[in-house]
Design a protein that fits this description.
Layout lengths: L4 E6 L2 E3 L21 E3 L1 H16 L4 E10 L4 H10 L3 E6 L7 H15 L3 E5 L10 H9 L3 E11 L4 E8 L2 E8 L2 E5 L11 H7 L4 E5 L32 H10 L4
Parallel strand pairs: 1-4, 1-6, 4-5, 5-11, 6-10, 7-10
Antiparallel strand pairs: 2-3, 7-8, 8-9
Helix pairs in contact: 2-5, 3-4
Length: about 260
């Protein structure tokens, strides 16, 4: 068994989490023109965790490779990942196509083989489609163990295993698995560092491999789902104040809540 870690970190370019999405005029999706984009927050946590693992196990981590599958502007978030500590990166240009999780997982499977990675750390979901599928699908395609919703990750160098504390309903669950492994990150795993200006400048000199869908001949990128309509959620009606518990009970009875 190889005594080194080669970490692959997929990152996605999404509308910034601080922006309130707006439905486009056609009602077919979210308006993307003139909107700020940034790295998916869960993927930002994944980058941070990969860097922290290297800081803790300096001799163990051979390489941290970031990959983004998206339009040309996705290179911006790859440069951010490089500035935060990734060593190399790859951009798979899919123009403006919106790939579904299965297609993304198939591309990542080939990237794992290309980079000879034995640990994949990625966000549990992206905040645009909230599918929460890619990590699980990738683990299935690779036939690797998976540790999802990670709140803590510990690497045992001697046995080349990972101990992962997962967030579950009502508490936490700790699992242990040998490498290779797929880990998906939850919000409380860590607090990502900022990419400083000097590091962003240095990142421009780091290797960025440019690929396209044609480099992944076995991947069928045709969508299996069709979005019929996107609309705003209904406006919530205003609440009312009650003066006593008895009045509260009466109001609840009126709406048949009790």
């Amino acid at each position: 068994m190889s005594k080194s870690l080669r970490i692959l970190v997929p990152v996605k370019r999404v509308i910034d989490y601080a922006i309130k999405p707006r439905i486009n005029k056609a009602g077919t999706g979210v308006e993307k023109t003139g909107v700020k984009f940034s790295m998916n927050p869960f993927d930002d946590i994944a980058v941070e965790e990969a860097v922290r693992i290297r800081e803790k196990h300096k001799k163990l981590v051979e390489n941290i490779h970031a990959v983004s599958i998206g339009p040309l502007k996705a290179q911006d978030i790859l440069r951010t990942a490089l500035a935060k500590g990734a060593d190399t990166c790859s951009h798979v240009d899919v123009k403006e196509a919106e790939l579904e999780p299965l297609a993304v997982a198939k591309i990542l499977k080939e990237m794992v083989a290309k980079q000879n990675a034995n640990l994949v750390i990625l966000g549990k979901q992206s905040i645009d489609d909230d599918c929460n599928n890619t990590g699980q699908m990738l683990a299935g395609l690779l036939n690797w163990p998976q540790a999802t919703f990670a709140a803590k990750v510990e690497i045992d160098e001697a046995n080349m295993t990972a101990r992962v504390t997962r967030e579950i309903d009502g508490g936490e669950e700790t699992v242990s698995a040998p490498l290779p492994l797929v880990v998906t990150t939850d919000l409380r795993l860590n607090q990502p560092r900022y990419a400083t200006l000097p590091n962003l400048m240095k990142a421009k000199k780091k290797p960025l491999e440019k690929l396209s869908l044609s480099d992944f001949s076995k991947v069928d990128a045709e969508p299996r789902l069709k979005v019929m309509k996107v609309e705003e959620p209904p406006t919530r009606s205003a609440g009312i104040k009650v003066g006593s518990v008895d009045e509260l009970i009466e109001k609840l009875k009126e709406v048949k809540a009790i």
